[in-house]
């Protein structure tokens, strides 16, 4: 497996682009609509927000992913979320899919729709219909086209986010590429995390969904923003089979290789979301080792990565192990505080700072050096079993919390 | 029932004071030790942190509250939390209690101990022993003495926090008074929420604990800070019986009157903690009405009051009902989003902004007026049953989140 460029255009047969149609009022110069398009039929898989309040496009996509055998296009807008918009919001999905169908010659049931932005406003449907024509005209299959699409789905993101890999499955070269948008720490426009992944692998719809459902809990679902789960969160995965490998229809070597490559794409995208927290200076990774159950490992790692106190300490380059132990302690997971080892690790080295629940005689200077890197990992070995989990977040910075990181110094 | 002054000295027979002994390095001029003292025997009740990692004084107090029939003194220090301090931390509790006993002539088992401050440091035990002598010498029973104590337990609090009431129980005038310290939003020194309540009511130990255990879930436990539950959180309640009412030994009219007064004190203290969030400009109260179960009502109200997006909107005086509906939606509680009504209320009026899940035609101008007050209430009527809950927090202010409140304007 090898990382390549090209985002959602890395896989054969996929085109994309992004344009500005004027959805984001007062933000001229910012692209706000994107399209992904495949000339050939794609299998589609998706995972959707667990929020009880689901945006209209989430309802639309769930239906299409479940009921349609073929999908050929995804359109995305940023600026307005089409959430809490009642019947009119659902009708607008129908109007947009109709427009894509008539413009491109595909069926309405082959169109997926995603929105991100302000909750409670209706989509500016007329300018979006014009946008669809413009998108279709501008479609391209190059790296630069994928980048236009990745830029058009941004809201408060500071950088566009793309990852792609190629690998060999059943003797054929297969590509998986994706783009996503996420949110910062406490962004007003958190609504939404959106991810789009395309692949030319040949795989059954059932196995495609299985792979996505297995990878999401360990990747996108392990990213911490501010705990607000949006009404629109969606990850879509489209496979058009153009790599020409024998169709993957069961769990075998080919499936495992595909899942491994999909994991790499999803992990890469997830880390990019975490690192793009508003004002963040560091990606903060938390690995929990040897928990009793997988659920325990997830609970413990998420509790640390979401702890404001811990995140502020990371910004302050302060090895404040007390806060980490405290966050493990209130996670709701049973463990023995007096067995826990805690390490910090980064490109600058690795240091054990707690052994069996008590601080080691570590060098604060060395700890500060390790914590001063752009990517910092905290490892907590709870010695209760054999299950591990990794969660990603970012530091809480001075801009947000002036007072917070300076207390101990 | 009537609110009075006097804090922990409002009840007959209780003395208190606060002094500076030098625990907070580099913060000269800040008091850091407090004592509450009763010449007569007190019944004691307590509630303690649910964190699996418990500070040494929490372990000490749990044992005393459970096993001792009489308590006469509480000593508190700020600056060092005595958490994650192993055997030495527990030994230091023993040394402090011994010193209080020898200094004051009471038993070691009659001494409760609380600490708040940095995790992982040992207490500066020698200067604290000197501090105990100083505290005992300075004890007084006036309002000013209670205030000295309330000031000495502060860490990052910007104001000291006291509430007291008097009422009639069984024909006798009874007093309940308390002080507490809390934390701001994402304070470095969140560790700890501490509350101390004294009363001259005559009540059995069993009923005293019952009253406290019934009141805490609706008061202190409904305050949102940043989700970090500390290793030291403690509320202690001491009753010396000097009001002379017939001893309360069962659930009757006298018990209910006592519980009502205790609730008023705990609610008052809780709101003071919420309103003192770092940089907060408003107390944010969230009432959930007509949930199916009490647990549902609590889960829904806490989800809204802890939502960073909602809190930022409150600061921006923005009636962003979409975020409130979103926070209800990810609470994990089952309800029908299409039945929810949402109101905003403050001294400036009351306004229905959502009816059956859809925005009403409310005046943004009027909403902004209501949201511009110092105390703002959001009411969500979910129409699923008959259970209610109220949670308290504060807004997320510009100093913390420059970018957040300006997006929609």
What keywords describe this structure?
Ubiquitin-like (UB roll), 28% strand, disordered C terminus, homodimer, alpha+beta, L-amino peptidase D-ALA esterase/amidase, 6-stranded mixed beta sheet, 409 residues
Structure write-up:
Two copies of one chain form a homodimer. In chain A, 31% of the residues lie in helices and 28% in strands. Chain A has 409 residues and is an alpha+beta fold. Chain A folds into two domains: 2-275, 4-Layer Sandwich (L-amino peptidase D-ALA esterase/amidase), CATH 3.60.70; 283-406, ArgJ beta chain, C-terminal domain (Ubiquitin-like (UB roll)), CATH 3.10.20. In chain A, the strands form two sheets. In chain A, strands 1, 2, 3, 4, 5, 6, 7, 8 and 9 form a nine-stranded mixed β-sheet that branches. In chain A, strands 13-12-11-14-10-15 form a six-stranded mixed β-sheet.
């Amino acid at each position: 497996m090898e990382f390549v460029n090209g985002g959602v255009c890395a896989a054969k047969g996929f085109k994309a682009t992004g344009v500005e149609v004027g959805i984001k009022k007062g933000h001229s110069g910012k692209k706000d609509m994107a399209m992904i398009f495949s000339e050939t039929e794609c299998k589609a898989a998706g995972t959707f927000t667990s929020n009880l309040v689901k945006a209209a496009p989430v309802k639309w996509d769930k239906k299409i992913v479940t009921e349609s055998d073929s999908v050929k296009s995804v359109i995305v807008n940023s600026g307005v979320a089409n959430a809490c918009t009642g019947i009119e919001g659902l009708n607008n999905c129908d109007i947009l899919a109709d427009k894509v169908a008539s413009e491109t010659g595909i069926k309405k049931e082959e169109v997926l729709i995603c929105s991100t932005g302000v909750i409670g406003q209706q989509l500016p449907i007329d300018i979006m219909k014009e946008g669809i024509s413009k998108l279709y005209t501008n479609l391209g299959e190059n790296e630069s086209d994928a980048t236009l699409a990745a830029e058009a789905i941004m809201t408060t993101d500071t950088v566009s986010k793309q990852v792609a890999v190629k690998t060999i499955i059943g003797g054929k070269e297969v590509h998986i590429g994706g783009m996503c948008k996420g949110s910062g720490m406490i962004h007003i426009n958190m609504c939404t995390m959106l991810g789009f992944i395309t692949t030319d692998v040949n795989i059954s719809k059932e196995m495609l969904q299985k792979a996505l459902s297995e990878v999401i809990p360990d990747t996108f679902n392990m990213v911490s923003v501010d705990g607000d789960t949006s009404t629109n969160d969606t990850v879509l995965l489209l496979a058009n089979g153009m790599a020409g490998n024998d169709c993957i229809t069961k769990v075998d070597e080919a499936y495992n290789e595909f899942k491994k490559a999909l994991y790499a794409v999803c992990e890469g995208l997830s880390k990019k979301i975490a690192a793009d927290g508003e004002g963040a200076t560091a990606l903060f990774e938390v690995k929990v080792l040897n928990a009793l159950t997988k659920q325990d490992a997830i609970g413990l790692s998420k509790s640390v990565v979401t702890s404001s106190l811990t995140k502020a300490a990371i910004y302050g380059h302060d090895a404040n192990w007390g806060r980490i132990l405290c966050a493990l302690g209130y996670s709701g997971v049973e463990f023995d505080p007096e067995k826990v080892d805690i390490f910090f690790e980064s490109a600058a080295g690795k240091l054990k700072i707690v052994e069996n629940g008590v601080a080691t005689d570590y060098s604060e200077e060395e700890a500060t050096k390790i914590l001063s890197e752009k990517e910092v990992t905290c490892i907590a070995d709870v010695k209760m079993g054999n299950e591990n989990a990794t969660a990603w977040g970012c530091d809480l910075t001075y801009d947000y919390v002036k007072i917070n990181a300076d207390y101990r110094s």
